[in-house]
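Figure 6 in text form: structure in, sequence out.
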């Protein structure tokens, strides 16, 4: 069974490559850039924006894990129209696995609206699929909000909540779904703990043993409110194993 991983240079794509390296799957990778460490796997160029290389990418493939995305640039063209065109090339596919994000219909953010549209494309297609929503990855929260203290201060919206998850745990879960076959929309995959960003910043200060302070700010708007209310979390699905603290400690090793 040949498995295609799209987005093979991304956070999730890289974690999937790492997990698949020790397993007995026939794997093909695709993205625009070549992954730095593709392991022993075949890689082909493709671009969801132009459609270039998609035919070659899907050739002989039975399962796709679609980890390609573009949250910041040309998102609609890549994540919705690009996906729509991609699906037309996949008529004989046995299983299309689509990683999505917890709470997207309740969080007023353009990229999340597009993720809802992408989910609908799959639901309305004839392709056997699994949609699995995850919470934000540890790396994502860490890099986006806790990587640049200003004058030794984390100036952050401290009340917003996250249930961040290890991308490796999520990649492992997606690989397990290959064996299970198409599930439709399946259970969310959340991290082990729900924390405020202030609590996450405190942990980072403690683990890294740095004298940074936390300055918590409030923000206007519905997006901020939805994250303060934890709409991006699912307390019934605390299934990821690696905690944020363990993730931070591991980075120091
Ligand atoms: N990040 C999170 O916290 C999080 C949480 C839950 C779910 N998810 C979901 O998990 C999936 C993967 O997210 P990620 O964070 O791993 O994304 P990422 O790190 O931004 O990686 C995106 C990948 O998409 C590829 N890509 C971008 N534009 C492309 C194009 N025009 N054609 C083909 N490939 C293109 C990129 O490779 P090239 O630039 O080399 O083409 C890259 O490999 C997404 O569906 C996301 O919504 C993410």
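Output sequence:
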């Amino acid at each position: 069974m040949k498995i295609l991983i799209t987005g093979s240079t991304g956070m999730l794509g890289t974690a999937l490559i790492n997990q698949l390296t020790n397993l007995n799957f026939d794997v093909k990778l695709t993205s625009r850039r070549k992954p730095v460490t593709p392991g022993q796997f075949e890689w082909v160029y493709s671009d969801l924006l132009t459609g270039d290389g998609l035919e070659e990418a899907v050739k002989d493939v039975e399962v796709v894990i679609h980890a390609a995305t573009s949250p910041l640039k040309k998102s609609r063209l890549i994540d919705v129209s690009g996906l729509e065109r991609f699906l037309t090339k996949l008529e004989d596919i046995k299983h299309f696995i689509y990683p999505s994000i917890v709470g997207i219909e309740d969080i007023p953010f353009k990229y999340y609206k597009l993720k809802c549209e992408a989910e609908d494309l799959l639901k309305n297609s004839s392709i056997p699929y699994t949609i699995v929503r995850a919470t934000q990855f540890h790396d994502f929260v860490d890099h986006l909000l806790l990587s640049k203290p200003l004058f030794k201060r984390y100036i952050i919206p401290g009340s917003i909540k996250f249930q961040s998850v290890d991308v490796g745990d999520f990649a492992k879960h997606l690989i397990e779904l290959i064996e299970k076959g198409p599930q439709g929309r399946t259970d969310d995959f959340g991290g082990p703990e729900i924390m405020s960003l202030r609590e996450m910043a405190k942990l980072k200060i403690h683990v890294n043993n740095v004298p940074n302070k936390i300055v918590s700010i409030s923000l206007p708007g519905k997006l901020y409110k939805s994250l303060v209310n934890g709409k991006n979390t699912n307390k019934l699905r605390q299934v990821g194993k690696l905690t944020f603290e363990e993730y931070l400690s591991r980075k120091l090793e």
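Caption detail: DSSP finds nine helices and eleven strands in the chain.
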